[in-house]
Inverse folding.
């Protein structure tokens, strides 16, 4: 069965989620308090509605409790974001993702039961900072406050050496979960310790941030 989504707040963040979900063929209900925003999404989303989502009756009229996943992308008006999230929770919406504007906002959203809180500016800043440190650090994805997954190109110190030889798990406490072999265009998930790393290969590494940081400094950054 096709899943249904609602995106509340059609700024740059919510608008982008709405466009992407719609492009992927999902049924999206796009909601914003401003008519001009809603007009912009009439030809993009399955449904586009002008509504103030801080009004409980309005949320009920929208039939929001039947929607599988609601994304609250209201930013500047923190009070509206919190109130909307709280009422969605009370109405029994199964899954709520909410955008936080700052750390306090994030704390409150978590407290009132948002299933997933995102902080796009901060998260993107972190990812870009890691890419700036070295051209070999391709991506950085936060799993929790202190664990991440990183995508790194093998540095010169790793060329022609095996995972066993480099002993990454014992030396740094992080795990190589996959190797993208660029030349052969294949992804080797859970690679053998004997696998030799070649120039251009990309490693997907999971671990605690402090362990990944030691690994990056010693073997990745050149
Ligand atoms: P972005 O950075 O994603 O552009 P932002 O963080 O600046 O957005 P806002 O522009 O404050 O966030 O909010 C996003 C959208 O949410 C706006 O289009 C705004 O009209 C809408 N919005 C604000 N309050 C409500 C509300 N009570 N009900 C529905 N939509 C709302």
């Amino acid at each position: 069965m096709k899943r249904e989504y609602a995106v509340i707040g059609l700024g740059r963040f919510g608008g982008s989620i709405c466009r992407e979900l719609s492009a992927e063929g999902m049924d999206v209900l796009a909601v914003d308090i401003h008519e001009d925003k809603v007009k912009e999404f009439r030809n993009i989303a399955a449904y586009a509605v002008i509504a103030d989502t801080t009004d409980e009756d309005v949320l009920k009229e929208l039939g929001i409790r039947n929607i599988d996943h609601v994304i609250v992308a209201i930013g500047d008006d923190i009070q509206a974001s919190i109130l909307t999230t709280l009422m969605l929770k009370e109405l029994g919406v199964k899954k709520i993702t909410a955008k936080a504007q700052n750390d306090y906002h994030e704390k409150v959203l978590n407290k009132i039961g948002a299933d997933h809180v995102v902080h796009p500016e901060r998260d993107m800043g972190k990812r870009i900072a890691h890419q700036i440190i070295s051209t070999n650090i391709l991506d950085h994805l936060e799993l929790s406050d202190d664990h991440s997954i990183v995508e790194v190109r093998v540095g010169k110190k790793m060329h022609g050496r095996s995972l066993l030889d480099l002993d990454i798990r014992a030396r740094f406490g992080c795990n190589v979960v996959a190797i993208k072999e660029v030349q052969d265009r294949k992804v080797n998930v859970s690679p053998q310790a004997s696998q030799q790393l070649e120039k251009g290969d990309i490693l997907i590494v999971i671990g605690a941030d402090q362990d990944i940081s030691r690994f990056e400094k010693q073997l990745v950054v050149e």
